Amino acid sequence: MKLLDSTDSGNNSSIERTQYPYVTGTSVIGIKYKDGILMAADMGASYGSTLRYKSVERVKPVGKHSLIGASGEISDFQEILRSLDELILYDNMWDDGNSLGPKEVHNYLTRMMYNRRNKFDPLWNSLVLGGVKNGQKYLGMVSMIGVHFEDNHVATGFGNHLARPILRDEWHENLTFEDGVKLLEKCMRVLLYRDRSAVNKLQIAKITEEGVTVSQPYSLKTFWNFNAFQNPTAGAEGSW
Amino acid sequence: MDPSVGDLNSPHSMGTTIIGVTYNGGVVLGADSRTSTGVYVANRASDKITQLTDNVYVLQIRKLSLIMCATFSINTRPRIQLGQPATVKVAANLVRLLSYNNKSMLQTGLIIGGWDKYEGGKIYGVPLGGTILEQPFAIGGSGSTYLYGFFDQEWKEGMTKDEAEKLVVKAVSLAIARDGASGGVVRTVIINSDGVTRNFYPGDSLLLWHEELEPQNSLLDILSSSSSEPMVS
To answer: What is the pTM of this model?
Structure first.
């Protein structure tokens, strides 16, 4: 059995089967707002049920016009970032005044994910791609099997089940930055309570026509002082 | 959409952290409060400390939804036969019998702790299979794997009540920091000659560990307070 090293261009020798994820990140949430896109993700990477790494940046800028957020296997995300870096480099080398916008990057990612899926060797990630170019806001998602779409608000993993219902209710066109941040924090707090792979340290990134900014890491306050939490089994000994 | 989300139909399992510690005069029992079904946290404030008798409490790791309904039989049997509340040893052994005789059906690890006037504070561990072991302290649950080294270093004989409780809260909080299956609040029960005290330590009152940050109300507060250090690009 030949060992694959850095001189191999992808896997061409053996038939690879679907792998298992080892170090994984949980949900990413993205929303469109008045001036562009806001994206939030916590900084945790779990190793099975252990919360192993707590300072992993899962939202990164891509070129001048896009932001990418990833959940799933972190090594695959790092590989994707390397490919995107190469893509942007080649784009710059043309030196023609054009630059790849979020729509183009999203398409590139979709092709990459779908092609790997067809070879039964997926990149085990769900990606959120957002950006602004020439005043046009764009927000899309690609899953590990190549399912891709665009929307006003997207989420990966548990965010789909817990955050999107909140966003469906409370998102509207022309959210201000403050309202957008508050909305994302509301969703992240619910995920913190209810997703066991969530970690209380997050970053919120924003992209507008002017450029990308990623916030410093910070933690959210949580609330535990409901009366019902104090003595939940008072009338029902043995229950939980 | 995401195959990695997991099966929300999996049985209620209690990945958990449970700890029982003896001190000079009684015992302190502690647990986290998270119940998860797969990756979803079904209950973030559950109470894993169950009362067996007035002076004996049990901590359970419930792997399957077969809950030990031992509380009734254990409370009534010794009272009827002896006319006084059970000792910790008797209660622990009754619980163990249930665990041992139903080995194939029940899959649970337990820590039984209490105080009686004959032996004082005692902790009994009843792991899978139904073994019974008297221990000065016991830890269990998925979160306990992160605490073996901690207890090897920190455990001391003859602690005071406050030292023991602080140790338990610190330990559960360390486990919560690293075990995805443990979380929420830390509940403790102190049992001694004066009776039983229940305490509640919410998530935000626990110490911060490595790579954890002070909680904030919102990013907006950070941005407005430190306007010299805005978002980094």
So the answer is: 0.81
